[in-house]
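#random but structural
TW: two for the price of one
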Amino acid sequence: MKFDQPAGTNPIDQLKIIGQPVDRVDGPLKVTGRATYAYEQHAAAPNAAYGYVVGAGIAKGRIAAIDIGQARRAPGVLAVVHAGNAGKLDRGAFYVARALAGPQVDHYHQAVAVVVAQTFEQARAAAQLVRVEYVREPGAFDLAAARAGAPVARPAAFGPPPETELGNFIGAFAAAPVRLDAKYATPDQAHAMMEPHATIAAWHGERLTLWTSIQQINWGVRDIASTLGIPKQNVRIISPYIGGGFGGKGTILSDAVLAALAARAVGRPVKVTLPRPLMFNNVTHRPATLQRLRIGAGRDGRITAIGHESWSGNLAGGRPEAATIQTGVLYAGANRMTRLRLAQLDLPEGSAMRAPGEAPGMMALEVAMDEMAEKLGLDPVEFRIINDTQIDPANPRRPFSRRQLVQCLQTGAQQFGWQQRNRTPASRREGRWLVGLGVAAAIRGAPITKSAARVRLDGKGIVTVETDMTDIGTGSYSIIAQTAAEMMGVGMDQVVVRLGDSAFPESSGSGGQWGAASSTAGVYAACVKLRALVAAELGLDAQRAQFADGRVTQEDQSFALAQAAKDGELAGEDAMEYGDLAKRYVQQTFGAHFVEVAVDAATGEIRLRRMLAVCAAGRILNPKTARSQVIGGMTMGAGAALMEELVVDKRHGFFVNHDLAAYEVPVHADIPHQEVIFLDEVDETISPLKAKGVGELGISGVAAAIANAVYNATGVRVRNYPITLDKLLDHLPA
């Protein structure tokens, strides 16, 4: 099906099931332990051996020698796979880091070997017996030191142009009566998902099956085939449940490659998981940024010049952190400039993490907007509203499909009690606590991509959906079931959803906030096909027939839906593809975050008291799962603001705090009541469902709102995240 014109009225608009707060389809399985994750596929892959990964002990250099003799002779050991016996390996199309070091070592804890044994304990013990002799080489581990020589980044997929300029930014900034020129820093951050990277691999002749934790199954098939040098059609990937990804499981990583190599070496299934202390340096992370914001405005508060530059680092061939992506479209301004610079570093690969680009970019931009509002003597909400735009600042002929940023700000201000905010910092005190309010805008792109599904109807009236879409904890099972139920006119109890198998039609996968809108559109297309088959079987006109309450009705004729499949199952399969609407309209999601904090006047301890997100993100397919997504993003934003930082050892080139004991993430005691408001909105330019994604909007802007609240509470402006006690103590009011 081709979607190339704005959607009109269609069966989804009945909103009998779509738009309702339906409980999660997979919820009972997860809370009772019956959802089978990658490492738990015992029945599917019996008699599996265990692989244990040995990580490199240096950050840059080469392997001079590797001695596996003791390990190979250890009890239960079946094989030790390393670069010397693994065969030729390539890389996939998304990640640039090699899964297996040798002879060169590219980063600390890059895998140098995997030890395979009968039991996990035997593999782990034998891994300690592998002896590796390294030759260290000097490496680059300090972004600040590499900043001066960092070139402008090359164009990269999923990011903005590395360099843009509109009008005369330099001249307009110099001439502006009110100016801000400030620098900000965001640290390296870890995905720290609950389920570690894990894979079971099994070979059947030349065919490989992977049970793995992955977000994009189609990418995984492509990349494992490329890495191992085998045909794509010889690969099957199965991933029905995923315990969190946040962009860190976009495609196959070292666990999948090493499991496949190990299984081939020992001739039986092998399961490999990355121990938590290995994950932080072995796989990807959100890279640190150094950012510079320059904003110029007239006395009336209208921005006349805005410039945003960002520096990040990565392995050779890696992508930059796209921290300028939102600055091109969030606020008006005739004279604009953005620039991304990328230094080559020898740290683990930097790649996508929830809202790549916007999450760290808004941590700087929305603090700069607050600082600028103060310079102008304007309320921060008012300043943002003054600079709203309904057209692409770089192309006046290209409007936004829907843009309710002003409504988000106004609704949030009223709901949160923004009028209680004292404009004078450090002026509100409750006993030992300094209290402040903060605000930030939120924006995240609303991309949509081709996605396919197959929908089957059996003689009992059961509708079964099959697509290789994944559910990383986001609610894919639920919204796909709701889509099929609405389209076929049945209850949720009549729908079965099967996800996460490359044998099913190829979907969009989960990532980039495109999963919900794309995958449900693919299911819609398949249901349209199935409705036509049903109507034909019943002698009805598919365009005029009504599907509701398990029946198909046209004027005075009415049939049970199941009757159409009485002589055999019917199946409709199709994909939703797209025209040029994304080029004709700017398609984005918008929001506003409001936060209240209390800061201990003596110790600098920061406590979040209240958090509110107001979101405008198209039709909300399921308010319950959507709210869960947004509060999850708000929680991650709180972590980014107050505690999360991968600390770099700049001498030896590794992240020091590489476990959950030392890498701080928010816990229940850190998070207050979180309120989410969804504005009524449909976006006819996105898909027939008129919905957008919401999973990454929730984190965008949160950290800045907290930083602005801390400033309002204390008068201390922290531009170097996270906002920890040491950055406040020497500057707190007497």
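TW: number two ↓
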Amino acid sequence: MAEVEQKLHRDLPPTTLWGYGGQFPGPTIEAEQGEPIYVRWQNHLPDEHLLPEDPTIHGDIIPYDEPGARVVPHLHGGNVEHESDGKPQAWFTRDFERTGPDFEKKDYYYANDQPPATLWYHDHSLGITRLNVYAGLAGFYLLRNDHERALDLPTGDNEVPLVLQDRSFNADGSLHYPTGVARTQGEGDGDDSRPDPSVVPQFYGDVSTVNGKAWPRLSVDPEQYRFRLLNGANSRYYDLKLLEYDEESGTTGDAGPPFVQIGNDGGLLSEPVETTDRLELGSSQRADVVVDFGEHAGETLLLHNDAPATYRGTSGIEADGAEPLPEIMLVDVAAAEGEREPAQLPDTLTRVPEISAESVDTERYLTLARQSDEYGRPRYALGTGDEKTGFELTDPVTEAPRLGDTEIWSLANFTGMSHPIHLHLVHFQVLGRQSAADYDPSEDEVDPDALDGPESYELGWNDVVSVDPGDVVHVIAHFGEYDGLFSDQTGDYMWHCHMIEHEDHDMMRPFRVRPADEESGSD
């Protein structure tokens, strides 16, 4: 990890960034299922942060006044030992001069004992994750195996990882990140005791960047391509569709080729699924899609986003229209060179064993809540049925499954916006969703047949799920090896909202996987 200068657009001066391997995004790591690797993440960053820190965020447990850039990489989607998970308090400064209280090792061990998937790595340092990721600390980690290669999916130049992010820039090319929270109507205009700089509730940039390029365009042949899409934005949702585009007038036309989804967070789906309209991606979610450009030779297409900044999914709450980012990337399709045989995807991709709801050991009712902190700033939190307004990060663990247990987590959203909720360590399956008003955890059983079923992009293995306002989403997870997939791990991990401003303040909680024979502790 080092500070670098990189030109993100021809009309912008070089931008100072933080990057893994001296680049933004970081280099794509390719690994093989069943072949473990060690990574030593080395911190060569300067002592002073590139962006303004807010020392009121966990200031009682973070040494903001001591020198050194605090970083800790997390392999997002990794089924890994807890010592290598990148815990928020396992941070380290340059050359490991100083380390956080949860730091245990310099060399992280990734067993790669899980299905092939589009994973990614990014910083996870407590209180400044939003700043470190925004500065550039993120990259792809692709896990492969022979079965996937035998499917004859697009490869080589026709396999393109794409990380979608939003940024804002100053005239000199430097990154712009807001440093204060605007007062809301009715708060008055007297003495403002809020910190400066201050954490902001969400961040929405006005420039689309893809793979580190601002306002990019991608050249493709009229062939089938595999796009590994990652929402790497701090807070923004994407609701994506390819549209025909007239560059001269700047107008969109008919629908372009559809996305055929073959995988998501945790790997391949059991079979390809064509997206009927748009593809939703909350922060940190991945979609592995195949797009056939054969019918659009010689055309320009627009990767279009119609998600409002303050995203509320299908809740019915009217969007405010503020800070939209509709134009994500242009796609230039080359002219056809003769006839071609249309490529076919296999009918079956892989086996995805269903986690049976009848095998559940524990059901948990978990709440998403909005609070205010001591400065009157919005603070989002995670709670339980007994504490619906939410806990602080440092409160005792309330979720402590045993190794080998299967659990249903029912996530109820009592805030005014959608939240992408991420569990470390495990991959889960989405059972479905319903109105939170229609579900009483003390009386109602979770009946998958009575729920609104998962969306097509939520099939298979997930490590992130979107919870819309007023909804409760039921997910089922097995903590340990399941039907020959994943591995047995115990220890302390995190679950949190992946809108990174929320994660920093304070929508993150620990969970503990206990040994199978341990009887004491939270249930």
